[in-house]
Amino acid sequence: MTLPIRRAARRRSPGVRRASAGFPARRIAAAVVAVAALAAIYGAAASPAFDLRRLDVQGARYTSVAAVDAALGLDASAHPNLFSLDTARARQSLLALPAVTDARLSVDLPDRLVVRIVERQPILVWAAADQRWLVDVEGVVIGPAVAGDPSTAGLPVFADDRSGRSPLAPGASIDATDLAVARRLGALTPQLLGSRAAGLSFEINNTDGFTVAAVPKSWLAIFGMYTSTLRSPDLIPAQVQCLRSLLAQVGERKVSTVYLFPEGDQCGTFTSGS
Question: Contact 58/118 with Cβ under 8 angstroms?
Fold first, then answer.
């Protein structure tokens, strides 16, 4: 007896789904949003609604609005779009102005730019060639000193009558030795010298160098010339002590001109007044 032959049934392998060649819905949505955002930005940058119409400059005392306009490249017809304004470059342009030490820019949409400026502060006035200049603690010329400006009242004024000096201008610097001398002498007051004078005046000339005089004029103290090596400004405290001692011992009414050249136990010489 023979058995029937059973044929093995074919096993079907599980179907494999092929990935779709299209983009997932989330990616499509993100792309649409990105394109819309770019379009919005482009539209804002091209829209005149965001053109600069109002410039608000704050903290500027020695820097004119015209100087700020020039640094920013603005004029009566310039209205840049605030979305395309390069504030980093604009700040560097402002920092190049003589009186400016720091600047911050902020955009106030739709049409306002706020510029906040920090300026150098003057410590003395340098008068030369019929011009008066404000000078800061680093010797930088800030700008012209305006007569009657209450912010500069009380600053010492140094009248530089020396010949052969280069003319000053905003952004220039006075000589380092001159600055060191001026800072020391400019700190003097009649009270520190034991004087009854109403004030002090300061002058520099080719003959006597730095001089200090009582105001009203009664006596003149010749401090002389200084260099960074041969005759340092470090000599000034000894000269001031000599002047104070002389005024106390002789009396300022009896002193006309004092030549302050301290050496050893000697302070210098003086001529008597009337």
Answer: no
Write the DSSP string, 120-169: --EEEEEEETTEEEEEETTSBEEEEPPTT-GGGTT--EEEE--SSPPPP-
CATH code of residue 266: 3.40.50
Same domain, residue pair 71 and 137: no
CA 83 to chain centre: 28
Classify residue 32 by burial, with Cβ atoms within 10 Å: 0-12, 13-18, 19+.
Answer: exposed
pLDDT digits 0-9 by tens, 86-125? 889 999 999 999 999 999 999 888 888 999 999 999 999 9
Verify that 65 and 139 share a domain, yes or no.
Answer: no
Q: Among candidates 202, 60, 62, 66, which has minimal Cα distance to 145? A: 62
